[in-house]
Amino acid sequence: MLRHGSVRYELLEHLGTGGSGEVYVARVVGGLERRVCVKRLAGQLGRGEASLLREEARLLAGVRHANVVSLLGYAEDDGAGPFLVMELVEGMDLRTLRHRLGPDRLADGVAVHVACALLRALAAVQRCLPGMVHRDVTPHNVLISAHGEVKLADFGIALARGRARDASARSVRGKIGYMSPEQVRGEPLDPRSDLFAVGVVLYELLSGVRPWSPAAGMRELSAVLEDAPVPLSARRPAIARALADGVDRLCARSRGVRFARAEDALRVLAPFGAGEVGPLRLASVVASLSLDVT
Fold this sequence. Notes:
By secondary structure, this protein is of the alpha+beta class. 37% of the residues lie in helices and 18% in strands. The chain is built from 10 helices and 9 strands. The strands form 2 sheets. Strands 1-2-3-4-6-5 form a 6-stranded antiparallel β-sheet, with helices on one face. The longest helix has 21 residues, at 108-128. It is globular. The two termini are 29 Å apart.
């Protein structure tokens, strides 16, 4: 049980542990009772980690968008330390969705709809916090609600240019397979690195594999640096050429070839999305996959 003033947070379910903390489903006790998501520091961590959690709260507080998980509050428990209170997205993450789909894939229009939602999230982040880089746009951090909403989560390793801790941009943090070449090399990042990750996510949704020849572990890191991405049209010959070209541009090894801004990518990809029926189709998929495991 976590406490902040007269409000208590009863931890109900442990959702996972990452590099920046532990995440739980919690119930607010006192006042307006509801289910929320609570993120707190993992184990006995020091002041540096606590400051990162405060920084994450500050970053999230500056972004309000339908495709970004909302921060509801930041609090400190006398015994357990600081924690974030965020909206709980009832549904599943994109990694779980793909795993439960098995050999099947989302319809192309729905896959593009997911990618466009991520691009809108990143565009909103850039409007509110110019220069900020999420650095971890991966299926695990893409949440799909039971209503078909798509939300980008976990800004725990996000960095903003021009801030004191920007020097740590040279450290390699992220998930293998979705990190841009410049991120693998430990170079300073800009928002085009997040666009690369969106491209890999969409390529994977459309083809079932990532843009390189089959590789695993550290070999995939070297593939990102050394191997030319396989054109999407080589794996999906019948796909619309403009869509394939847009995905390939997002996945380009050279950031100069990628779209300069999320809005630019949106203009190319949006015509191939499912449009207004996208959330309905996603909600249907989530519902059917949830029934399969009950």
